[in-house]
Write a structure and sequence with these properties.
Distance between the termini of chain A: 72 Å
Radius of gyration of chain A: 18 Å
Number of strands of chain A: 5
Number of helices of chain A: 7
Shape of chain A: elongated
Order of helices and strands of chain A: HEHEHHEHEHEH
Structural class of chain A: alpha/beta
Oligomer: homodimer
Strand order of the largest sheet of chain A: 3-2-1-4-5
Helix content of chain A: 40-55%
Strand content of chain A: 5-15%
Largest sheet of chain A: 5 strands, parallel
Chain lengths: 162, 162
């Protein structure tokens, strides 16, 4: 397996919703690919609409096909695929056979789960978490939504004023 | 000038705000580059925050540095630069010396202005407008904002209900 890495570059798997693209996403994906070293190939799993709705209680603003196409149009991304509806990471791991799984900075529980899974099965997969990029605002899809709603509220109160 | 195009590919200039990236942006930029033929180089001017505020009456959600960096992280884009604050396309044209200027589908007036400018000066620049991509929703930054505000209003009325 070590030799394989030298020849063709490691396969890195990253994942997320990628609704309302901001610089934090680019930062995450760039560092995810970097975690695979030279000639790494970055494959990104984009969460299905139904998965997002189930986990976050609301639909994404952009539909899954658009989110996938936008992620795949980024220079740093080699391939973007839609996840399974039940977001079973293990099915994806079996299919992709990554050398590295690079998670977002806040995926602490998922990191623990994956490390346990990999250890139990004796798989040669490195699990890493990428540091947060927080020097630029807005740096999350929820802060983008918040900013839009605040601008709308401020507009409404200006319109109501005599 | 014809020979130059064969050797190094044409330089295509595109422009926009690119706040809240959606698939319409990718469509526009892909077709803009295509308008330059084989080996074209796509340079994108990203509008300054102050220009957007002056023309549209509100600030973009994402600041100009983020918008520029996100546009430059797209595969189809070779270079993204911030515009001049007064959005003087003519200064940009003098600097970049494009072979083609590819405008968004709705830039009808700008197309007329640029065609007149190019004709008056006898410049060898082709001005094209790219067709709209409207088969996927949301396909504009304003429809993204609308969707977020509607979801917020619907949430508010659910919270108020007994």
């Amino acid at each position: 397996m070590e030799g394989r890495g030298k020849k063709r570059g490691k396969i890195v798997l990253a994942e997320g919703t990628f609704d309302l693209l901001h610089y934090g996403h680019i930062h995450y994906l760039t560092n995810a690919k970097r975690a695979g070293g030279k000639n790494a190939k970055l494959i990104v799993i984009v969460a299905r609409d139904k998965t997002v709705e189930r986990l976050k209680g609301r639909k994404p603003v952009l539909p899954e096909d658009q989110r996938r196409a936008i992620v795949e149009s980024l220079k740093v991304v080699d391939e973007a695929i839609l996840g399974y509806e039940d977001m079973d990471m293990y099915k994806v791991i079996e299919k992709i056979k990554p050398d590295v799984i690079a998670l977002g900075y806040d995926k602490i529980n998922l990191e623990k789960e994956l490390k346990r899974y990999v250890k139990e099965r004796g798989l040669n997969i490195e699990i890493v978490r990428v540091s947060k990029f927080d020097s630029i605002e807005p740096n999350s899809s929820s802060s983008i939504r918040k900013k839009i709603i605040e601008a709308y509220q401020s507009q409404m109160s200006r319109d109501k004023a005599p």
